Predict the structure.
Amino acid sequence: MAEPVHDHDALEAGDFSVWLGQIQMAIRGEGESDVPCGDCTACCTASQFIHIGPDETDTLAHIPAPLLFPAPLLPRGHVLMGYDEHGRCPMLVDDRCSIYDHRPQTCRAYDCRVFVAAGVQADADKVLIVERARRWRFSFPTLLDHDLFQAVHAAAVHIRSRADESGAAGRPANNTQLAVAAIEQHERFLPQR
Ligand code: SF4
């Protein structure tokens, strides 16, 4: 069972509506997440495959080719970067991203606050991400902040229940994809006022 979060562990996640606008842009590839990571490297050490698109030429120029392999089910040119036997990205050196200014769009868009936003826990094997995500606390200064938060949660519940009905074919591949899908689809669940 998850440990309770004490106030001194809590991290300010910002106003929900502002954050939601930023993460939507990042997901569309039109911006970057602005996550106050501090010294946290949880997402760089969580045994994650990093997708890099063929148009990310600057990123590709900064990663040794032997670390990349074709991305399954995606068109030619899309690649993945794996991780070492400890689950660490090979670009993480001395606990810092060694290609930070050239990092993949996947890394620029990643934001572990999506799990809190969608009411979804990170996948169980991503222990450090689970720990980090449970510390975020959004602010809700307006009714809109509340409505948007409820809408993202409702979208996540809907996607999960629809996946349960349709079986494996309709199920997001992991909880990150579930949370991202909830953010993408939340507008359908906003209350009509
Ligand atoms: S490329 Fe950099 S930011 Fe992305 S996972 Fe690797 S170390 Fe982390």
The longest helix spans residues 143-166. Helices lie at 16-27, 57-61, 105-109, 113-118, 127-133, 143-166, 175-185. The chain has two domains: 9-35+111-193, 38-110.
